[in-house]
Structures are given as C-alpha cells and as structure tokens.
C-alpha cells in the first residue's frame, strides 16, 4: 500500500515538475520577445538622450608649463616647456616620464598646432628659418625660410596647417603678410599682403583667407586670384573655422554666431549662411571646435560658457559654465581636455551618439558642400571631420518604394490565383495546385535575388519591353479566349472541363509570353527604357514573386473559408458564379484578403537579400521608378558589420532595426486581428 | 443597350483572368527551377571541344581550341572559352556573331583540369618521366602513378612531420626557451633536414610533365602534380558524358572553391550549412516543442495565452535581418563578451565567443525558426482527438503521462514537419547569417582534427552567402556563374525536397485524424 502511494506521490511530483518546466518554456517565448525589444530599445536609446558634459578628472602640474595635451588618459603625450628653451613630451600614465626632448635656442619662436590627431611644432629662428616637425608618431619635418626682413618686422604671428598646405601669418605694423607653403614644393613660397586694418583668419584646407572689417567679410584665395565679398547685418567681432575649413563661424555684435558652409557653385567654392547659434549679449566666442568622428562641436565663449552643439543642424545639446577660461583645449573621442596654467581638467561627454538627434535624422540638413538642405545618407566617408550624414528618409523611401512596387506586381497575380483555386476550380485541382504555389514561398530569397541580379538585370531592357507588351496585349488574349471558351467547354465532358481550362490558359500564357519576348527582340528594337536605372522594376518583379505566395496562401484560406452555405444560397437564388463571387465571396472574405495583402507588404518591407542583390543600394530620396534605391534592411546588412559598437552609426542602425520590428509588429497584429474577426464572423454566420 | 459580350462570356473572362494568374505563378515556379537546373548543369555537363575560327576585333583570323556554353543570353554574341598557346589557361572571350567563322569538333583534344581550378584545352603529346625522358602518351598512367608516390610523401612530410616540428617549436617559443638550447637546435636541425628532403622531392616531382600541343603547334608542358583530371569530351558517348557529369557532380560536392569561387566545388559551404543547421535543430527542437506543448496543453485559456500566441505569430513575421541585428548586438557582443570575460579572459582582447561565429549563427537561426516549430507542433497537437486525452486521464494517467505517452507520439509527425520546415528556412536564409558569422571564405572547417574538434567560435561558409557573394563577383555566362547556378540549384533542391517532405508528412497526419 505504502509502495503504491509512494509511487503515486512520485508520479504526481514528476507531473508538477514537468508542468513547471513546460510553463517555463512557454513563458520563455515572452521573455525572449521582451529581451529582443529591450535590447533593440536600449541600443537605440542613445539617439534620444542628449549628450552631456561631466567632469571626470583633474591633473595637477604645478611645476611645469603645459603647452599642449594629447589624449593622456589613453597614453597620449603631454607637451610641456623644456628648460631653458624647447619642448618635452611626457607620458602622464608613467609618472610624467619624459619621452622626448627637443631643445631650441631661446631666440626661436615656438608654437604648436594640431591637425588630425597629429601635433606639429612650428619653430622659427630669429632670421626666419622655419622648421616644422611632427610631435606624435609622424616624424616628418618640413624646413623652409621666410624672408628675414619680413619676419623681423613681426608684431604678431599665426600658423595653420592642413596637409599638404601650411599657412603662416606675419603681421607687421602696416600689413598682414600671409605665406603659403605647399609641403610638396617647399621652395615655392607664396606671399600675399593684406592691410593691417582687416582682421585675418587662415583657412589652409581651402587655401583661402577670410578678412573682415566692420560689416564686410571677404574671402580671398591664395594668390588673390578670386575674391568674394559679403555684407553682414551687424558688425562682426570674430570669425572661427573648424579644422577642415569647410565651415566658418561668424560672430557679430548682436550675439549671434552664424555657421557659413562651403558650397560648390559650378566649380567656384563659396560660403553660404546656414543656422545661427545665439549667445548672451556682449558674449563672444573664443573658439569653435569640431569633433573628429561625429557631428558634435563646441563653442567656448569669453564668459566661460562651453556650448555643445550639433554642427550640422545647429541644435544646442548641453551648456556648462566653466569657472576659469582655459588657455588651450583638445578633444579626443569623448574626452575633452581643458588646459589651465598648472593643471588639466578632463571632461567626458556622456552619450556622444546622442548628437544625432531625431531632427538630424528626419529633417533635411544643410551639409558642407551641398547647395541646400537635403536628405543625405552617407556613411562611407572615412576622413576625419567630415560630417556624418544619417538621414533616414531616403532609406525609408527606398524600402517603401520597393515594397509598394512589389505589391503592384504581386496583388493581381496572387489574388487572382487565390480566387481561382479557392472558388472556381474543383477540390481535386485545388489539392494539386495549392501546394505547388506554396512551394514558391520555400524558394530562398537569395536564389530569387541571384536570378534577378545575374540573369534578369543584364537583359532588363528587353525583359521590360516584352513584359509591357505582354501586359498590354493580355486583355485582348483573354477576351478572345473568353469569346469561344464557353462554346467549347459545353461540348466537353464535365470531368475534363476544369483541367482543360487551366491547361489551355497555361499554354496560352506560355505561347503569348514567348511571342512577346520574340517580338520585343525583333520588331521593337527601340529600347524604351534605355538610359535609366531599371533595378527598381526588376526588384518589383523579383520581390513581387517572392511575396505573391505569401499573399496567395492567406488569401486562398480566406476565400476558401467562406461557408458553402452562403455560396449555395446565392446559387439557389439564380446567381451566376461571377455574381456569387462579387457579391458573396469577396465581401465575406474581404478582411482576410486585406490581411493577406498587409502581411505580404510586411514581408516585402522586411525582405533583405533581393533588394540587396538587385538594387544599386544608392540611397536616393526619390519615388521615381527609374531611380535606384537602398532599403532599410539592405542598409543594415551593408553597414552593421563595419559599425563600431556603441557608436553613432551603430545606434542609428539599431534604430532602423527597431523601426522594422515595430512596423512589422503593427502590420502583423492588425492583419491577425482582421483574420480573427473574419474567422469569428464566418463561424457564426 | 447592346451588350458587347454575354454574361456567360464575361464570366469566362474573369475565370480566365484568374486562371491566368494561377498559371503565371505555376510557370514562375517551373521557370525558376528549370532555369536554375539548366544553367547549373552547364557546370557539370562536359562540353565538347571545338576547333573554332574567328576574327579578332583587329581583323586577324584566329584558330584555337574552345568550348562554348549554350547558356548565352542572346543570339547575337558567342561566348567562347578559348585556350591558346599565348594564353594557355582557358579564358572567356565574347565575340560578335559576325566575327565567328566556323567550328568543328576535335576528338583528340583533351580538357585538362588543373588542381588549382584552371583548365587547358590541348592535344596531349608526350609524357616525361623523372629523368626528363620523353615517353609516349601511353605511359601517362604509369608515370602518373609513380609521380603520385612522391606526391604522397611530400604531403605526408608537410602535413604530419613538419606540422609536428612547428608545434614543438611553437611550444619552445611560448616558453621563451633560448635560441641556443640543445633541444631547440636539434629541432631546427631536423626541420632543416626535412626542408632539404622536400626540396629534393619537389625537384623530382617537377620532372614529371605532360607535354601538350595547341592548335598552332606550340607545345606547353604541365606538371603532372598540377593535373587533376584529363577528359576527352568530344569522344564521349552519352553514357560516358553522364558518367563524367556524375564525377563532376561529386567533385562539386566534395571539393573546395577555387579561382575566386569560379571553379572547384562547394564542400566547405555545404558542410558549414549542414553543421550550422544541425546545431540550430538541437537548439530549437526542445524549445519549440516545449513551448508548443505549453501553449496547447498546459496554458489556461486566458488573455495572457492569447497574447503569447500573438507574440509567436508576430515573431514569425519579424524581418530576418532584425534577428541578425539582435544576434550580433545581444548574443555576440553582449553574451559572447560576457562569456569571454568569464572563461576566455586569457586570450582577451582577442575575442573567442565575442565575435561572430558558428554557435551564434545557429542560435540566431534557432530564434528565427522558433515560431515555425511552435506553430507546426501546435497544429499537430490540435489535431490529436480530445477523446484520446480523456481516455488516458480515465485510465489514471497524469497530465505529463498523457502528453508524453499519448499526445506527443501521435503529434510527432507534426514536430518533424516543424523541424523540417525550420531546417529548410535556416538553410535558405542568408541575411542574418551575414551579420553573425557566415563569411565568403573561411580557411578552416568548423569541425577538424585539432582540439576541441568542434569549433563553435569559428566563422564558417554557407551556401547562401556563397551565392550572394557570387552574384557580385561573377560575370554572367562564365563558367563561374555556372558554378553559382549549380550552387543555387543545390540549395533550391535541398530546400524544396525538405519542404515537400514536410508537406507530405503534414498531409498524412491530417488525413489520419480528420
């Protein structure tokens, strides 16, 4: 007895254990889905959180004069004054161990300038001998001579480097002398002269200088070959450039800082006003700096305010008030080093990916080099300080264009086929046709994409011409067949009628398609579509084929599930098959058909391989069917393997993935709800 | 009012239109499969060798041995694969139909396929043996055999003896043993001796050559070691051709890709696909089946369960690339990174599991195919008549015993269906794999003879990725495209057969418990 009850207990315990296990797995689905959503959201979140400054660390250097600071948290070098004259580079992480020492005579004038993570020492002797040498890594040296008399008259100097060009400004009592040096031809030094009453800013990257006085701005090319002048609204008090010289920041008395961006007007580079940043009254910028890999920039003002902004859209991201005004600064990754006499403050910028605000993703932006605000998606520019262009509109339009074009191809074919097998044909034929069409769904999309890309795309002209011909003449064919079909059909035995029907049509289609192809080749040699990109149309055909079996399966289920009682009642009232189809079957099945189309659309929207392989993957914001496209999905496949984890592009790509996820989720839920409603209705009708 | 057509005819028109739509879809399927097979078969079916005469673009008349593939897209051009004395390895040249003068089959010309995947069309003339003596062609098989012995010895030295020495030297290096240590010197001596032996053997091997003659009479000698196969396609009868095609098919399935995926075979890709799918099946089967059992047998009928069902059907509709993004972001970088910091901290910062690889690919695919398995299994469970469950309960069985002993065995074909559909889906899906571990070329297979034998962290090749890559790197209508078409046909064949099996299984189950 006890043995039996023990056994019973054991069985019950096991039952409970298994129940728990199974429930765990059932709940696991939900957990899985939540983890997916959570992960996508968490990786997207940086885009929606504004970046902010945070004070991280202070290095005290009481006994030395810091000239320039590298990325010292990441083993960068500190540059300090050497005694008696010259510079030393030191490794901060190793107790300020001196790495290198460059000693110079004290009569030399020394200055440090930075260009793309490389710092250069400008060393000019008393008689104008210039020696420029790299401090970090690159040990290139450039040596040349400035005219001794010019140099000795100097009151003030400035240096700018943007390889291969170097510009040196020597200001004397009466004029500014600008010396232009091309590092590839060091003997060839060009000298330009400007009146001392103008203020001068060097733009080495563009080989230009900006001069301003009062409300007048003038941009002059090296050699004074061309000159553009602008009249500003208010007197200008400061002009700054960012490192690549492609954007200028013009500050005026009204407290406004305007960004001027270079545009290429048929070969001539001019600067055009875009957005403005607004400062306090009497506040003036001291510097504008751009971040090397993102669209972030900061303005440091003479009131000690540090303003972080998006340098493309002009949105302010964070503003902090500094206690003292630093004497120099450098920016590496998310670390901003501010140099003060005797100490270096390190500020970190949290969530730098948040520079790409939703506005900068969805609103046209005026990028450097463009003629106006545009939607541009371009990530491949590898050069530092180029603007990142993450406009998502072209990608969204590409996805929608491909999916909608595919629907246009798929809907008539798949709904027609669904009506045929679901309503017109016999059970026997249905049983053999339906699985065959459903096999289409199993064909891997990479295979369809391969055929479309390798076999169809090269003959796109011919294919599309013949297709056009085929579609235009098709109604005629069907009409002619319809005229005679009835007469022939009544003479056939009932059993054969349906088979003969589909067989005859298949044959006709085949012959007609072959004829169209032949005619397109020989009779119509004019290539109607030549000269424009056909890839969107090819994608429409390939993608249409891929989704048509999805639509077909669901639509067929809907049509087939219309209760036969309804159909029979309609027949009994004397309706023909066509009338029954129109008034009963399609009406009842409509929610199911809409759901089928929606799910087909969802699949087309999310399809990757076909669009990736067939289209040129060029993100163009255009609805034109003769323009190439890039879809959201293909974009992820192309860019994600290359994207830095946690970087801005990574977040943007996760954002597109989340968009796809939510979009299909909504489409699918609505479609399921429609189908559910229809099932319920059919059940109780 | 005059009706242009009678109601009868109008009805016919609609039926015809619908039938036309059906016919279009069916024809599309047939055309797809047929076209693939036709183009793919060009890769394995031996093409006869012709003597062709054609005008070069500069007007010069040229004669050469060539093959051409009839898969050309239009009639106005001829695509010849020509082999001439100036360019012995077969190259494609595209001619205008007007440049093409005449062609004639040549029986004595052979198609000589080299180990590296290139091909030469020429007439074999003589064989030279180890002493460089010119021997008649009939000696070919004898000389090939004796060359083979040397070849095997070389392979043995390379693969076994040298590898062992390398390993030992690597150990010394790791332990930072001094350069003058006696053990090390000994190893280095042995290494040098083997190198010397190899050099001699290779020199000997180089003496074995086959001399061939092109049409213009120029000769060319090919080392026997480089030759993979010699066939005479123009003399083949139909059964011979079928046999040659079967051999080609075998090489296609078992060889590695060569000449930038334009020749050779697809073995690593096929193997990678199979291993990945196998691993995926192991992961997805218990998850999918248990989740389906929960949904159908255990879950109470409440809104929560309804929501779970909606979740499952939504998961099925989520674009596959999104799973790839999740797989890369969560599994590879987050989970993989964690695993690395816990178990493989000694090799950091080089990632072990924190980089795309086989296991993560399989896991991502399992996630992708989970809804397929759940839906199919649940459908099977719902087909099991309730009376069977009641009978089991009436006999005193617990819920678990009922499910385990009665319901699941009956629904097992549906589980099989689900798994097969999942396998078919995973075999054909490419987009997420490109993010989580499938690469266009992987130097090693995921399973090999070095510890731990089954390398879950390795990147692998996949048929679909190979095809994707082929679409970008192959010119249409070359032999390379033919290989890609063959790979496509293989993939299509596997996927379609799996689907047909699944459909048959499902139909059977449905019919059993109608």
Automatic annotation (TrEMBL), chain A:
It is a multi-pass membrane protein. The chain crosses the membrane at residues 21-41, 402-424, 436-457, 463-484, 496-515, 535-555, 584-605, 648-671. InterPro entries: MetI-like, MetI-like_sf, Quino_amine_DH_bsu. Residues 396-671 form the ABC transmembrane type-1 domain. It comes from the Bacteria. Pfam families: BPD_transp_1. SUPFAM superfamilies: MetI-like, YVTN repeat-like/Quinoprotein amine dehydrogenase. It is found in: Cell membrane. One of its GO terms (cellular component) is plasma membrane. PANTHER family: PHOSPHATE TRANSPORT SYSTEM PERMEASE (PTHR42727:SF1), PHOSPHATE TRANSPORT SYSTEM PERMEASE PROTEIN (PTHR42727). Belongs to the binding-protein-dependent transport system permease family. This is ABC transporter permease subunit. It comes from Alteromonas sediminis. The lineage of its organism: Bacteria, Pseudomonadati, Pseudomonadota, Gammaproteobacteria, Alteromonadales.
From TrEMBL, chain B:
Pfam families: BPD_transp_1. Keywords: Cell membrane, Coiled coil, Membrane, Transmembrane, Transmembrane helix, Transport. It is found in: Cell inner membrane; Cell membrane. The keyword Membrane applies. Gene3D superfamilies: MetI-like (1.10.3720.10). Residues 184-211 form a coiled coil. PROSITE patterns: ABC_TM1. It comes from the Bacteria. It is a multi-pass membrane protein. InterPro entries: MetI-like, MetI-like_sf, Phosphate_PstA. Belongs to the binding-protein-dependent transport system permease family. CysTW subfamily. This is Phosphate transport system permease protein PstA. The gene is pstA.
């Amino acid at each position: 007895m006890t043995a039996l009850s023990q056994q019973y207990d054991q069985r019950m315990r096991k039952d409970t254990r298994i129940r728990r296990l199974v429930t765990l797995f059932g709940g696991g689905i939900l957990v899985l889905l939540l983890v997916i959503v959570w992960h996508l959201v968490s990786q997207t979140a940086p885009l929606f959180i504004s970046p902010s400054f945070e004070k991280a660390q202070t290095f005290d250097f009481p006994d030395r004069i810091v000239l320039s600071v590298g990325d010292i948290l990441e083993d960068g070098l500190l540059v300090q004054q050497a005694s008696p004259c010259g510079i030393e580079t030191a490794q901060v992480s190793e107790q300020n161990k001196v790495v290198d020492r460059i000693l110079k005579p004290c009569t030399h004038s020394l200055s440090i300038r930075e260009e793309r993570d490389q710092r250069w020492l400008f060393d000019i002797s008393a008689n104008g001998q210039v020696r420029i040498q790299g401090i970090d890594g690159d040990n290139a040296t450039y040596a040349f001579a400035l005219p001794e008399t010019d140099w000795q008259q100097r009151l003030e100097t400035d240096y700018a480097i943007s390889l291969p060009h170097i510009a040196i400004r020597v200001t004397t009592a009466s004029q500014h002398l600008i010396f232009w040096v091309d590092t590839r031809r060091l003997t060839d030094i060009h000298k330009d002269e400007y009146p001392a009453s103008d203020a001068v800013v060097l733009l080495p990257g563009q080989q230009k200088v900006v001069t301003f006085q009062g409300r007048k701005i003038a941009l002059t090319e090296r050699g004074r070959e061309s000159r553009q002048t602008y009249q500003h609204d208010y007197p200008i008090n400061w002009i700054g450039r960012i490192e690549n010289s492609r954007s200028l920041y013009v500050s005026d008395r009204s407290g406004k800082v305007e960004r001027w961006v270079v545009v290429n007007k048929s070969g001539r580079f001019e600067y055009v006003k875009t957005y403005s940043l607004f400062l306090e009254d009497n506040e003036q910028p001291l510097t504008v700096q751009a971040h090397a890999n993102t669209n972030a920039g900061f303005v440091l003002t003479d009131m000690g305010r540090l303003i972080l902004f998006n340098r493309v859209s002009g949105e302010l991201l964070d503003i902090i008030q500094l206690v003292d005004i630093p004497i120099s600064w450098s920016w590496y990754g998310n670390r901003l080093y501010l140099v003060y006499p005797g100490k270096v403050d390190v500020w970190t910028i949290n969530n730098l990916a948040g520079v790409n605000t939703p506005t900068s993703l969805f609103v046209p932006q005026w990028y450097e080099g463009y003629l106006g605000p545009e939607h541009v998606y371009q990530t491949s520019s590898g050069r530092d300080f180029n603007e990142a262009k993450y406009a998502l509109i072209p990608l969204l339009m590409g996805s929608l264009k491909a999916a909608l074009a595919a629907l246009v191809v798929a809907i008539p074919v798949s709904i027609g086929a669904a009506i045929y097998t679901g309503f017109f044909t016999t059970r026997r034929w249905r049983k053999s046709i339906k699985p065959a069409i459903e096999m289409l769904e199993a064909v891997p999309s990479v295979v369809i994409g391969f055929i479309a890309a390798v076999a169809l795309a090269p003959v796109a002209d011919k294919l599309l011409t013949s297709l056009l011909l085929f579609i235009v003449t098709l109604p005629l064919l069907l009409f002619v067949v319809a005229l005679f079909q009835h007469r022939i059909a009544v003479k056939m035995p009932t059993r054969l009628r349906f088979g003969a029907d589909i067989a005859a049509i298949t044959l006709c289609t085949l012959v007609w398609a072959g004829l169209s192809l032949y005619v397109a080749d020989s009779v119509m040699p004019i290539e109607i579509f030549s000269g424009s990109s056909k890839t969107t149309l090819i994608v429409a055909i390939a993608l249409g084929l891929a989704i048509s079996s999805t639509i077909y399966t669901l639509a067929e289920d809907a049509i087939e599930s219309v209760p036969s009682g309804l159909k029979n009642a309609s027949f009994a009232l004397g309706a023909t098959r066509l009338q029954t189809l129109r008034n009963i079957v399609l009406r009842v099945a409509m929610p199911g058909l809409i759901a089928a189309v929606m799910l087909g659309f969802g699949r087309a929207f999310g399809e990757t391989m076909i669009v990736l392989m067939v289209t040129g993957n060029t993100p163009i914001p255009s609805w034109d069917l003769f323009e190439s496209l890039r879809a959201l999905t293909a974009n992820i496949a192309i860019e994600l393997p290359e994207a830095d984890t946690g970087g801005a592009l990574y977040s943007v790509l996760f954002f597109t993935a989340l968009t796809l996820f939510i979009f299909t989720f909504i489409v699918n839920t609505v479609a399921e709800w429609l189908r559910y409603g229809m099932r319920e209705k059919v059940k109780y009708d | 009012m005059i009706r242009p057509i009678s109601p009868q005819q109008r009805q016919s028109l609609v039926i015809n239109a619908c039938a036309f739509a059906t016919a279009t879809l069916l024809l599309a399927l047939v055309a797809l499969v047929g076209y693939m097979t036709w183009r793919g078969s060009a890769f394995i079916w031996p093409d006869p060798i012709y003597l062709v005469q054609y005008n070069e673009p500069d007007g010069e008349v040229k004669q050469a041995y060539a093959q051409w593939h009839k898969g050309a897209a239009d009639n106005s051009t001829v695509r010849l694969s020509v082999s001439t004395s100036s360019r012995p390895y077969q190259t494609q040249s595209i001619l205008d139909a007007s440049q093409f003068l005449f062609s004639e089959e040549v029986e004595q010309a052979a198609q000589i396929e080299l180990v590296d995947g290139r091909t030469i069309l020429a007439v074999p003339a003589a064989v030279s043996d180890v002493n460089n003596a010119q021997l008649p062609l009939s000696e070919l098989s004898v000389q090939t055999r004796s060359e083979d012995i040397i070849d095997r010895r070389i392979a043995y030295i390379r693969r076994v003896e040298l590898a062992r020495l390398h390993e030992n030297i690597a150990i010394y290096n790791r332990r930072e043993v001094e350069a003058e240590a006696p053990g090390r010197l000994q190893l280095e001596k042995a290494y040098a001796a083997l190198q010397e032996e190899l050099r001699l053997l290779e020199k000997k091997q180089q003496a074995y050559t086959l001399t061939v003659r092109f049409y213009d009479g120029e000769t060319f000698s090919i080392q026997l070691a480089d030759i993979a196969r010699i066939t005479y396609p123009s003399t083949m009868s139909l059964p011979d051709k079928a046999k040659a095609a079967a051999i080609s098919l075998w090489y296609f399935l078992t060889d590695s890709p060569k000449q930038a995926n334009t020749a050779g075979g697809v073995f690593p890709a096929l193997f990678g696909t199979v291993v990945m799918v196998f691993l995926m099946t192991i992961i997805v089967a218990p998850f999918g089946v248990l989740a389906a059992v929960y949904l159908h047998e255990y879950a109470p009928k409440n809104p929560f369960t309804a929501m779970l069902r909606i979740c499952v059907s939504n998961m099925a509709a989520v674009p596959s690339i999104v799973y790839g993004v999740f797989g890369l972001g969560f599994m590879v970088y987050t989970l993989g990174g964690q695993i690395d910091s816990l178990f493989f901290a000694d090799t950091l910062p080089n990632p072990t599991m924190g980089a795309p690889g086989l296991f993560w690919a399989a896991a991502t695919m399992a996630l992708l195919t989970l809804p397929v398995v759940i839906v199919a299994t649940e459908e099977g469970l719902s087909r099991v008549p309730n009376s069977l469950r009641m009978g089991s309960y009436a006999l005193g069985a617990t819920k678990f015993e009922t499910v385990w002993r009665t319901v699941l065995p009956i629904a097992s074909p549906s589980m099989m269906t689900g798994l097969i559909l999942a396998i078919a889906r995973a075999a054909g899906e490419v987009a997420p794999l490109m993010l989580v571990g499938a690469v266009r070329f992987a130097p090693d297979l995921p399973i090999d003879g070095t510890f731990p034998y089954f390398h879950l962290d390795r990147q692998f090749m996949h048929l679909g990725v190979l095809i994707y890559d082929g679409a970008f790197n192959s010119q249409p209508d070359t032999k390379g495209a033919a290989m890609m078409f063959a790979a496509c046909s293989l993939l299509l064949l596997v996927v379609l057969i799996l689907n047909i099996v699944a459909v048959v299984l499902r139909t059977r189950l449905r019919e059993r418990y109608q």
